[in-house]
Structures are given as structure tokens and as C-alpha cells.
Design brief:
mainly alpha
């Protein structure tokens, strides 16, 4: 097994971002392998999924211990996502393994990345509309809707099995749309818990029928495991993730556009327009914030009010 130090470094960076923000795993790692390291799309998906199968249980175990996993939702999601994830690999296998198939897979992966970026933006907007969570993070009773939840699992499983993208972006947004009253911590915990059997099923399919490469997967794991741990440790009480999340959306969008064949010059123009738009949004939000009035000083028991001090003629 040959270890690529540059892939390991990429694993550290992506793992750190995932641990810090809880998003961007497959949506960042797979296009990095394809665009920067020249890995064939099928090999990138296979290796990324197997690496994720090792990382996902770590976060899921933490949420299970904290009681932030809705087991009813996980059950219905898994019933749809596990067979769909395995079937996604079979669909890839049926497409063949020629150069034409790899090119088609690049386009499909790029389209999914663009959808994932839009899903991230949708989640940010839904979070903004919900407002801040209560201080005590009080539990809200969530009534399970079996058939829609099963459908979310099927759609997410197919996409994850074919592209390795979606377990932390598409599924979580669809869950938020179905259950808008669910707590943020419970949403993340539920998504992580259902992702464990989903990624395991998709990984098994890729080990059997995909293009799994041991050296590539080992390089990813050597970097991503400490990166996830470090990011998770720093994430508590850190405001850095609020700055990183928009950057993830931009990177995922540009990667998707590049994979679908958008020229580099056009990508530069898109990036420039995005930066200008982001600057305008930040400036407008700052102007919209009401100025905090100064709190008048309360005179103490021994203080003399200003009006009571006689003026000299």
C-alpha cells in the first residue's frame, strides 16, 4: 500500500472542516481527488465512501451517548437508504467502466455538487427563519412521517451510492424540510446515525463492484481521522465555522461547475460575482442591525445627581 502524502494532507484539511462544521465530507473530498489529483471518478467515490465508513461511527457514537438521535427517524431512513445505496453501486456497475462512463460520471457528480451547494444555502435560510434555539434546547416532540421519510432515505441512498455526496448535505436539508421543529442537535445526530449503515452498505457495494484502491483510502484515513478529531475539539464555542460554511458553499459550487465542463475563465467570473454579492450581503446585514442604545448610568446611593449640583455665576 503506497501512501500519498499530498492526499493525506488533503484528508487532514477536509477532516478538519467536517469536524468543525459537520458538513462538506464527500462534497469536498471527492472533487478534490478528481480535480486536483487526477483520480478517476469511480475510484474517488469508492475510496471516499470506504474512508467515510470508518469516520462516520465516531460522530454517531457521540450523539447516541448524548441522546440526540431520533431512533424512529433513523429506522425509516435506513429502510430506504441502505438498499438504495447498494443499488446505486449496481447502477454504476451496469454503466460500465470505459472513458465515456467516467466522463458521464463527472458531469453527474458536478450536477449533484451544485444541488448540494443549493441545499446548503437552503439549510442556512431555514435556520435563519427558525431563529435561535432556546437556551435550554428543550426537546420538541417529532411525529414520524413514515412514507416521506422512507422516500428521503431512498433518494439520499441512491445519490450517496453513486457519488458519495449527500449524506451530510442533501439528506439533512430534506429532513429539515419535513420536520422543521426538530432540534438542531437532534437533526445532526439523526443524520449521522442513519449515515453509518448507509455508508457501510454503499462501501460494501464499492468493495465488491467498484474501483476501491487501498493506498488511496489509506492515505485519506491517515489524514482525515486526526483532522476530524481536531476540528471537533475546536468546534465547541468557536465562531470560525460561521466563516467557513460560506466558503464551503463557494468551493462546492465551483467544483460542480468545473466538473460539468464550465471553462476556467467563467469560473473566475462566477467567483468574482460571488465575492461581490457576499460583500453586499454582509454590508446590508450590518446596516440593518439596530444600534444598541447606551445604557444610562444608574446613580449610586452616595452619588449626587448632575442636576443637583449648583452652578457658579
Amino acid at each position: 500500500m503506497e501512501i500519498d502524502p499530498l492526499v493525506t494532507l488533503a484528508g487532514v484539511l477536509v477532516g478538519f472542516v467536517v469536524g468543525l462544521t459537520g458538513m462538506g465530507g464527500g462534497a469536498l473530498m471527492t472533487p478534490i481527488l478528481v480535480l486536483l489529483f487526477g483520480v478517476q471518478p469511480l475510484a474517488a467515490v469508492s475510496s471516499d465512501l470506504v474512508a467515510s465508513a470508518v469516520m462516520k461511527p465516531v460522530g454517531a457514537t457521540v450523539h447516541l451517548r448524548r441522546g440526540t438521535v431520533h431512533r424512529g427517524l433513523v429506522t425509516w431512513l435506513v429502510l430506504g437508504s441502505v438498499p438504495a445505496g447498494f443499488c446505486g453501486v449496481l447502477i454504476l456497475r451496469a454503466m460500465g467502466d470505459g472513458e465515456t462512463v467516467q466522463d458521464r460520471m463527472k458531469i453527474f457528480m458536478g450536477a449533484i455538487l451544485i444541488v448540494a451547494a443549493l441545499a446548503m444555502l437552503a439549510k442556512a435560510e431555514l435556520d435563519r427563519r427558525r431563529g435561535p434555539a432556546p437556551a435550554d434546547d428543550a426537546a420538541v416532540e417529532v411525529t414520524v412521517r413514515p412514507l416521506p421519510t422512507l422516500a428521503v432515505g431512498v433518494v439520499g441512498g441512491l445519490v450517496v451510492g453513486m457519488t458519495s455526496v449527500g449524506s451530510g448535505s442533501l439528506i439533512i436539508v430534506l429532513l429539515l424540510a419535513l420536520y422543521p421543529s426538530i432540534r438542531a442537535s437532534q437533526l445532526v445526530g439523526t443524520d449521522l446515525a442513519q449515515a453509518v449503515p448507509l455508508v457501510a452498505a454503499a462501501s460494501l457495494g464499492h468493495l465488491l463492484f467498484g474501483d476501491f484502491q487501498l493506498g488511496l483510502t489509506g492515505s485519506l484515513l491517515i489524514g482525515s481521522l486526526p483532522g476530524v478529531y481536531l476540528g471537533a475539539r475546536i468546534s465547541a464555542g468557536s465562531a470560525t465555522s460561521a466563516l467557513i460554511r460560506p466558503a464551503i458553499v463557494v468551493v462546492v459550487s465551483l467544483s460542480g461547475l468545473k466538473l460539468v465542463g464550465v471553462p476556467t475563465g467563467a469560473l473566475g467570473a462566477v467567483l468574482a460575482l460571488t465575492l461581490v454579492a457576499a460583500t453586499g450581503v454582509v454590508a446590508r446585514s450590518r446596516r440593518a442591525q439596530p444600534a444598541t442604545p447606551a445604557t444610562p448610568a444608574v446613580p449610586g446611593p452616595g452619588d449626587t445627581p448632575v442636576e443637583a449640583v449648583p452652578r457658579r455665576p
